[in-house]
Write a structure and sequence with these properties.
- The protein is an alpha/beta fold and 220 residues long.
- It is built from nine helices and five strands.
- It has helices at 3-17, 21-33, 38-58, 64-81, 108-119, 133-143, 160-170, 188-194, 203-219, and strands spanning 94-100, 122-126, 147-151, 178-182, 198-200.
- The chain has a five-stranded parallel sheet with strand order 2-1-3-4-5, sandwiched between helices.
- Strand 1, helix 5 and strand 2 (122-126) form a beta-alpha-beta unit.
- Helix 3 (38-58) packs antiparallel against helix 4 (64-81) and helix 5 packs parallel to helix 9.
- The two termini are 35 Å apart.
- It binds CO-5-methoxybenzimidazolylcobamide.
- CO-5-methoxybenzimidazolylcobamide (B1M) binds next to helix 4, helix 5, strand 3, strand 4 and helix 9.
- CO-5-methoxybenzimidazolylcobamide is lined by residues 64, 67-68, 98, 103-110, 112-113, 149-151, 153-156, 180-185, 200, 202-203, 206.
């Protein structure tokens, strides 16, 4: 393994940990120039940085602001690396359809979940905000995901998650997917009550749950 390659991957990782947007752009360009495959630059560089950020968050050294900044830094790196990703390069862990539920326009948290899931190797279809139950059902029919993710930030909209689950049941699609929910007003109890399979209080735990589901599915 060349030291130049190692040095660039370490810089990609450190730029994520230090939210260095200018640095990540330079390091991503240098990775391409040095012939490092884009997928390796993402997974062995930036995603490793995201793992460190996730750990620091869990240990209380980093907070939400740092998660958001790391997500933004990663997005800038992705803008440079994504065009160089070859089809079939990424061994996908599974497909996730995700959105913020009907009536709710909050998407900052959902976008962090999307970034972390993509960085972890999931194929993510982001339906955006204010997504009706019908739209979720249509998306499940069209994309045949392994996981459906829903986000809600308002006490008035979190109830719409139940509508989505009911609509999936009516369409005969409920058992084809795992369902994860998240968002500030939610609780584990609420998630159970509406019939979701998982609840995550933050994006890092959300991705961990999805990864666990993916590895269980692969073992079957
Ligand atoms: Co609004 N808002 N907002 N807001 N807003 C809150 C949520 C509120 C708590 C503020 C307050 O009063 N203290 C309050 C809700 C009260 C309630 O329902 N109990 C509120 C309100 C009332 C409103 C409006 C009604 C205000 C008005 O117009 N009168 C209005 C509603 C609009 C609508 O949605 N229809 C409104 C509008 C807005 C803005 C548009 C201005 C803006 C959103 C911009 C955007 O998202 N693009 C906004 C913002 C920014 C906030 C606060 C300040 C911050 C939310 C945020 O982004 N947090 C918020 C107060 C607060 O939360 N402190 C507030 C950061 C984000 C990273 O966290 O989204 O929780 P969060 O995501 C976390 C976890 O929850 C989890 O992972 C993320 C990262 O770790 N997670 C998941 C989230 N989704 C997940 C999904 C998963 C797994 C994990 O799996 C699928």
């Amino acid at each position: 393994m060349s030291s130049k390659r190692e040095e660039i991957l370490a810089r990609l990782r450190d730029c994520i940990v230090n939210f260095d947007i200018d640095g990540i752009k330079d390091a991503a360009r240098e990775a391409i120039e040095a012939g490092i495959p884009a997928y390796e630059a993402i997974m062995e560089g930036m995603a490793k940085g995201m793992d460190i950020v996730g750990r620091k968050y869990e240990e209380g050294e980093y907070f939400l602001a740092e998660l958001i900044m790391a997500g933004e830094t990663m997005k800038e790196g992705m803008k440079i690396l994504e065009p160089y990703l070859k089809a079939g390069d990424i061994p996908k862990l599974g497909r996730v359809v995700i959105g913020t539920v009907e009536g709710d326009l909050h998407d900052i948290g959902k976008n962090i979940v999307v970034t972390l899931l993509s960085a972890s190797g999931f194929d993510v279809i982001d339906l955006g905000v204010d997504v009706t139950a019908d739209k979720f059902v249509e998306a499940v029919k069209q994309y045949k995901p392994d996981i459906v993710g829903m986000s809600a930030l308002l006490t008035t909209t979190m109830v719409n998650m139940k509508k989505v689950i009911e609509a999936l049941k009516e369409a005969g699609l409920r058992d084809s997917v795992k369902i994860i929910v998240g968002g500030a007003p939610l609780t584990e109890e609420f998630a159970k009550e509406i019939g979701a399979d998982g609840y995550a209080p933050d994006a890092v735990l959300g991705v961990e749950i999805c990864k666990k589901w993916a590895s269980t599915a692969r073992k079957k």
